[in-house]
Design goal:
With about 230 residues, the protein is an alpha/beta fold. The chain is about 40% helix and about 25% strand. It folds into two domains: about 5-125, Rossmann fold (3-Layer(aba) Sandwich), CATH 3.40.50.2300; about 135-230, Orthogonal Bundle (Arc Repressor Mutant, subunit A), CATH 1.10.10.
């Protein structure tokens, strides 16, 4: 165990209660900050409180497929992924790694082996260049780019940003965003897309920095960079 372990937030996304409990207990004793979720819905609630550095991910979940979750995390964020599943064939491993997993383990793996895989993945991550960080002030509606330029948002833009930073890197659906706007609109209304385009243009013009919004066409939006908020 290292004193730096608590700096890392690990989410155990596993629907088997006994295994989930063992993993949480063991990793907590090794000094990690650990949260647990049995479903994708619970996971999304957990990450609104604190973004995970790594997800220990089962593939077969009651309300989703872990492979899809891995692809989503890899496409829209920098959260690391260690898959822990009953599926142990070579094809299963290749599919899991191709979907974005940093490591792939089967469930009969020893807890120490799981810990070692987590530490190895996190160590590789810590050796990468530091990512530029954005900041959003939810009180003043100021979005500050990594170069220190602050841009004032409108009421609708502020709601949009607040929704995205609930879970950075995880897409928010058009329905969720449209319903939260000061003047709720139909999720199919193209005015939502127009607002996002105007916001992107404004941020990039005023800050001179690419605006890290990812559009998941027909689904929603995600904020793909690291962000802090006050």
């Amino acid at each position: 165990m290292t004193s730096a372990s608590a700096d890392y937030h690990v989410v155990v996304l596993e629907d088997e209660p006994a295994l989930r409990g063992d993993l949480v207990e063991y990793l907590s004793k090794q000094g990690f900050s650990v949260s647990a979720a049995a479903t994708l819905k619970e996971y999304r609630q957990v990450v609104t409180v604190r973004k995970p550095d790594l997800v220990l991910l089962d593939i077969n979940l009651p309300d989703g497929n872990g492979l899809d979750i891995a692809r989503e995390l890899r496409a829209f964020g920098d959260t690391r992924i260690v898959m822990l599943t009953n599926l142990g064939t070579l094809d299963d491993r290749v599919t899991g790694l191709d979907s974005g997993a940093d490591a792939y383990l089967v469930k009969h793996a020893d807890l120490r082996e799981i810990e070692a895989a987590i530490r190895t993945v996190l160590r590789r991550t810590s050796e990468r260049p530091t990512e530029a960080v954005w900041n959003y002030n939810r009180t003043s509606w100021q979005l500050t780019s990594p170069n220190g330029t602050s841009v004032k948002l409108t009421a609708s833009e502020a709601v949009f940003m607040s929704k995205l930073i609930e879970a950075p890197g995880i897409h928010q659906t058009r329905n969720e965003i449209a319903a939260a706007l000061p003047r709720p609109i139909d999720s199919n209304d193209r005015s939502l897309d127009s607002m996002v385009k105007r916001l992107r243009k404004k941020i990039e013009a005023e800050s001179g920095t690419p605006f890290p919004i990812n559009v998941v066409y027909g689904v929603g939006y995600s904020f793909t960079a690291q962000i802090t908020f006050t």
